[in-house]
Design a protein that fits this description.
The protein has five helices and no strands. The protein is 76% helix and 0% strand.
Length: 90
């Protein structure tokens, strides 16, 4: 009864441990993405993307964009993630 009154008066939940636990949760896919970005093939496609971005950014007027390089990088990263992610999910 006392805890219910505290909750009503303060408007905050009494158990703060649950809130802290939720904040500590990390999406396993984000962790896998970071690891896969360091893989050899992903590093190569990222370098191609960065080279394209610097080339396009250095020009004042160009119709070129880096869509192909971006898709290549995302495909390589997601391909790597797909092989590893589902083995780590419970």
């Amino acid at each position: 009864m006392v805890s219910e009154e505290k909750m009503i008066l303060s408007g905050e939940p009494e158990n703060e441990e649950e809130e802290e636990e939720e904040e500590d949760m990390v999406d396993p896919m984000e962790t896998m993405r970071q690891k896969c970005e360091e893989a050899e093939h992903c590093v190569h496609t990222r370098e191609r993307l960065e080279h394209c971005e610097s080339r396009v950014g250095s020009r004042s007027s160009t119709a070129e964009d880096c869509t192909e390089e971006l898709f290549d990088f995302l495909h390589a990263r997601d391909h790597c993630v797909s092989h590893k992610l589902f083995h780590s999910i419970k």
